[in-house]
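A.,

Following up on our hallway conversation. Structure tokens first:
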């Protein structure tokens, strides 16, 4: 199965803690609990410092898209500074996390995965103009174009568009003008090494 998604398919969702709104790009249903998700992709605008919502049992990956950055304090430990674009940071969703903005609002990309059910990874793929790259498959692959234009398995994608593929083999990614993509690979926990 292959499905192409764009801004008209995304929806705005209130934060679990009531502190803001996230644009939900994709939510994969949980295999046994309809009130939960297996995996969720979103882009959030963080306008002020404050606590993150808690997501017990969820592995979170956060990546800065725009802005000066933020410093996260997890469970009272030392701060982790996220001030470079496209650098994924993984942390447990149940950790009490406080965000301190470094210089105004930021936009970030979020991957959340139920760690008991699946393993997920987020890789940033930079394609130079005219470059082709092969990406290994997984049970589920989601490609989101962050910048530029690309073609995936012959399907053209522009910035903010996404391709959701179930059980693909290896994928050929190409960009004639240059592109940056977020590649999300998901595998069921029972199949993960």
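Then the amino acids I'd put at each of the 193 positions:
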């Amino acid at each position: 199965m292959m499905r192409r998604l764009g801004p008209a398919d995304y929806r705005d969702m209130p934060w679990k803690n009531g502190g803001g709104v996230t644009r939900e790009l994709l939510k994969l249903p949980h295999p046994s609990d309809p009130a939960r998700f297996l995996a969720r992709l979103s882009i959030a605008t963080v306008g002020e410092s404050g606590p993150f919502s808690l997501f017990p049992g969820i592995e979170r990956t956060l990546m800065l898209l725009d802005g000066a950055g933020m410093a996260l304090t997890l469970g009272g430990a030392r701060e982790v500074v996220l001030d470079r674009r496209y650098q994924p940071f993984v942390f447990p969703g149940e950790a009490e996390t406080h965000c301190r903005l470094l210089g105004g609002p930021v936009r970030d990309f979020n991957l959340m995965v139920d760690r008991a059910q699946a393993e997920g990874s987020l890789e940033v793929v930079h394609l130079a103009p005219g470059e082709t790259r092969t990406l290994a498959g997984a049970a589920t692959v989601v490609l989101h174009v962050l910048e530029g234009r690309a073609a995936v398995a012959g399907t053209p994608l522009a910035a903010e568009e996404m391709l959701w593929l179930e059980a693909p083999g290896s994928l050929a990614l190409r960009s004639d003008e240059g592109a940056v993509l977020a590649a999300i690979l998901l595998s069921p926990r029972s199949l993960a090494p």
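The domain at 10-114 is CATH 2.60.120.10 (Jelly Rolls). Curious whether your intuition agrees with the design.

B.
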